[in-house]
Task: inverse folding
């Protein structure tokens, strides 16, 4: 495989990790977040700063990065998740813009110049490039999928499904809405942080505009396209939306138009996503009980 | 003084200028069935929402097992032992019937972060959930998506969910409405069974035959205020109650 395709696959794997995180928040707990790129960015900036300014290795920084992102997710989620539906959506968009501006205007984060000189990941003495970096990303993607699957089998996951379906009834069954929405939000943002760390060390240079609102919309598109609330949906969504621009490279000027057309067609004909309940793919390949549903 | 399970003490709930519940006091003993009746808009469901924690009272106090619980959130009331059904059914629509009951069985595990990460599907709990579904007579529908069930079965499911909480007090909000005769008979028997286990029941019911047949005592609300309280016989012959239901001047015809 050419270096170029491996780079594309790296991006797809990283975006799949982040989209899986968004799926925990939106798909499992039913809380709209249109600011997920902010947490992707927080992960990337934390890892970049910890490895350049604090001199940690990627591996030493990684647990801290995940913790920092999750902690910021907790603090920002606490007031936001008390809001419902469109109010929550608008608030999360706001979070995205604020975080992006902090990276852009606070000199500590490199300002408009961004952060450069981020070291490559070293694993037992070898610098991970190309295919080796892809294996690392795929390993973390597998880990994120395992955690997602485990979450759907846990009481916390069941509580989130109940909240997603009927908040009043769920709370009358003993489910604390704030606690379980926050739990899903923190798990989802931690996954975004992990993706951000990988991204920083893949690019080795990051700037605030990498983590803007359009990326949040793209993440949401991946989840919706693949199948919201399904295990593999976000991965399939990331794959399709990652590969399409390459396939349609000659039509580069119409890329956004194509994306929009695909989303509209999806919403019209397969509203639950490619892997959702009753979708075409599900009818052709019956599931073995992988989704969060019935 | 509180050997009563539930006591409302001058409880009011105002929405802006509307006094949905206005200085209402009544109490409910352990193992008692109390019927809450009254015309539409009398404040019955608001009363339920106050007891189950959906609303905090504007003024007055609510005591459950002697402790003041006014303003507690619903999940805390569930933990204390208040189970409820909803006037407009609220199933977790995409989840199967069995999982709906599982959500309620998880009540003991939602309190601590660690226990909420344990697996929910164990054979023992599956059995417990199936037993509850058998009790309400819909065990054969365990794997069906709850949102697609007919109303009668959804009402039974809500009852199973409420019982899964092992409640001390069961709030039934028009659980019998829209049901066929056989279903009403089956659920009535079930409510009496529940009471024989020492669980108190507070029920809102428009079907007077059911309400008067099941309840040990009745409380009548009208325009948010307590209108009458007593046995079915007392309430039926109370001219103010007849007036509230049928209008002024009706009492003379009724008697």
Result:
């Amino acid at each position: 495989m050419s270096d170029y395709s491996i780079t594309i696959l790296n991006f797809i794997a990283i975006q799949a990790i982040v989209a899986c995180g968004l799926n925990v928040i939106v798909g499992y707990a039913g809380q709209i977040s249109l600011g997920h790129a902010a947490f992707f960015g927080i992960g990337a900036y934390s890892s970049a700063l910890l490895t350049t300014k604090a001199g940690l290795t990627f591996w030493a920084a990684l647990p801290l990065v995940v913790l920092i992102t999750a902690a910021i997710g907790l603090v920002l989620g606490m007031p936001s998740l008390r809001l419902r539906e469109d109010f929550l959506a608008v608030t999360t968009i706001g979070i995205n813009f604020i975080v992006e501006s902090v990276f852009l205007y606070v000199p500590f984060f490199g300002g408009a110049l961004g952060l450069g000189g981020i070291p490559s990941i070293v694993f037992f003495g070898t610098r991970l490039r190309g295919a080796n970096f892809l294996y690392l990303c795929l390993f973390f993607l597998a880990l994120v999928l395992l955690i997602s699957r485990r979450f759907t089998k846990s009481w916390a996951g069941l509580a989130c499904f109940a909240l997603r379906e009927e908040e009043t009834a769920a709370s009358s069954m003993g489910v604390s809405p704030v606690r379980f929405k926050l739990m899903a939000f923190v798990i989802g943002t931690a996954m975004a942080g992990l993706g951000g760390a990988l991204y920083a060390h893949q690019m080795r240079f990051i700037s605030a505009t990498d983590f803007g609102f359009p990326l949040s919309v793209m993440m949401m598109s991946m989840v919706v396209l693949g199948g919201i609330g399904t295990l593999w949906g976000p991965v399939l969504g990331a794959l399709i939306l990652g590969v399409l621009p390459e396939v349609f490279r000659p039509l580069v000027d119409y890329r956004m138009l194509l994306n929009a057309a695909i989303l509209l067609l999806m919403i019209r004909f397969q509203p639950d996503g490619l892997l959702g309940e009753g979708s075409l793919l599900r009818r052709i390949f019956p599931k073995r009980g992988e989704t969060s549903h019935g | 003084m509180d050997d009563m399970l539930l006591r409302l003490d001058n409880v009011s709930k105002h929405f802006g200028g509307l006094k949905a519940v206005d200085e209402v006091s009544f109490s409910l003993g352990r193992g008692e069935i109390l019927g809450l009746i009254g015309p539409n808009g009398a404040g019955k469901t608001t009363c339920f929402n106050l007891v189950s924690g959906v609303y905090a009272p504007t003024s007055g106090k609510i005591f459950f097992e002697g402790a003041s619980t006014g303003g507690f959130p619903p999940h805390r009331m569930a933990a204390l032992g208040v189970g409820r059904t909803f006037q407009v059914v609220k199933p977790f629509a995409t989840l199967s019937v069995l999982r709906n009951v599982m959500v309620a069985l998880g009540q003991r595990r939602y309190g601590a972060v660690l226990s909420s990460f344990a697996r929910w599907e164990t054979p023992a709990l599956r059995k417990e959930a199936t037993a509850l579904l058998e009790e309400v007579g819909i065990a054969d529908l365990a794997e069906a998506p709850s949102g697609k069930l007919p109303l009668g079965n959804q009402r039974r499911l809500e009852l199973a969910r409420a019982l899964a909480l092992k409640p001390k007090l069961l709030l039934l909000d028009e659980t019998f409405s829209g049901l066929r005769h056989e279903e009403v008979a089956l659920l009535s028997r079930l409510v009496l069974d529940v009471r024989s286990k020492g669980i108190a029941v507070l029920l809102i019911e428009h079907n007077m035959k059911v309400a008067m047949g099941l309840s040990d005592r009745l409380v009548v609300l009208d325009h948010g205020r307590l209108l009458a309280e007593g046995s079915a016989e007392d309430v039926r012959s109370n001219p103010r109650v007849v007036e509230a239901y049928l209008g002024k001047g009706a009492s003379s015809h009724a008697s």
Remarks:
- Chain A has one domain: 3-284.
- Residues 3-284 of chain A form a domain with the ABC transporter involved in vitamin B12 uptake, BtuC fold (CATH 1.10.3470).
- The radius of gyration of chain A is 19 Å.
- DSSP finds twelve helices and two strands in chain A.
